[in-house]
Design brief:
With about 110 residues, the chain is mainly α. About 70% of the residues lie in helices and about 5% in strands.
């Protein structure tokens, strides 16, 4: 409960508690490290890497706009659908960018 500063973090059972949140974080970091280890053994052309780096710069702006749209939609009572799209798309791009960053250049 005190781990994440929420007053009622443990009131919803195991899935809403800080132990579950911490477990999800550890599993996510483990999966990401395994993915990076796999990507390190792969190779990618320099042109493809450059393209992904350029798209990452554009994506930073796009993901910030999507995040802002998600916050506005949530404040207006439209739910978390746009915010969820923004977070999931940004996390998918993190995997694409890390693959390009970790892979060997041909």
């Amino acid at each position: 409960m005190l781990l994440f500063g929420a007053e009622h973090a443990a009131s919803g059972g195991f899935y809403n508690g800080p132990l579950f949140t911490l477990l999800v974080i550890f599993i996510t970091v483990f999966v990401f490290l395994k993915f990076c280890g796999w990507a390190k053994k792969q190779s990618m052309s320099a042109g493809a890497k450059k393209g992904i780096y350029i798209l990452t710069g554009v994506g930073v702006v796009a993901f910030n706009v999507m995040y802002s749209m998600g916050n506005s939609a949530f404040k207006q009572g439209e739910g978390l659908s746009m915010a969820t799209i923004a977070v999931v798309s940004a996390l998918l791009w993190v995997f694409i960018f890390s693959y390009a960053l970790m892979s060997e250049t041909k």
